[in-house]
């Protein structure tokens, strides 16, 4: 029987540290020295490359990217230029925005209509219940009125506002649809999901409508003040007071007085040609038209006041 020596687990020959040097710490091995030396030489190469780059740099070097770059934390960062847009470009973009929002709103409303056509609203689930009025001839019929008999259906199906079969249909035809409890539960869950989707789409369509109204209002506010008309003053009565020279006049609409100056470019086309319109002439036309209406003039006098 031969005896085998146990295999050595040491990677190389090591020398025990003398007892007199234990206070200095562990003895550095060759692999530790190799790691430290490689790290030192790698750092020296980097420093030498940077020194060479500094020596070779041209002080007069310039390229256009230097204008739009700046150094932050040792890294070159490109400066972002602010977009300079004209008012016309902004108006075009706002028009595109309201067109896009309106397009998405119309698409959402079509999806809502399609979902409504696929789903049946139950009276038990809706807050606002519909009413069905039946007309009879005498009070006795009102007292003896039986809804199940009048609708020719079972009393259990009276509260059902959709798919309410008659008694003849129940006798002649078998029950159609799912009758397994598991299938009924699955269908009820699917219907609930569809109703939730419909509710979310309705809310989304309302928000889109509000957004489009805000964009339109912002767009209208940017128009010149001379071309803007307040909605509350569209149907209000108009009275005008102006001097005969037509230099300027006061326009009163529902208690709101505004100053109106004549414009030499404003003209009105009529059967006698074009004439210049000023505040004074406009007020005069209104007064003449009112007098013609009082004396019952012709339609031409009512529609086209004379100078």
TrEMBL record:
Gene Ontology cellular-component terms for this entry are: small-subunit processome
Which region ranges are annotated with the description Disordered?
Answer: 1-24, 223-287
Q: Does the keyword field hold Protease?
A: no
Q: Which regions are flagged for Polar residues bias?
A: 1-13
Question: What compartments host this protein?
Answer: Nucleus, Nucleolus
* The organism's place on the tree of life at top rank: Eukaryota
A GO BP term, please? rRNA processing
Name the UniProt key words of this record, in alphabetical order: Nucleus, rRNA processing
Asked if the keyword Nucleus belongs to this entry, the reply reads yes
What the record says about family reads:
Belongs to the UTP11 family.
- Name by which UniProt lists this protein: Probable U3 small nucleolar RNA-associated protein 11
Per the record, the gene is: utp11
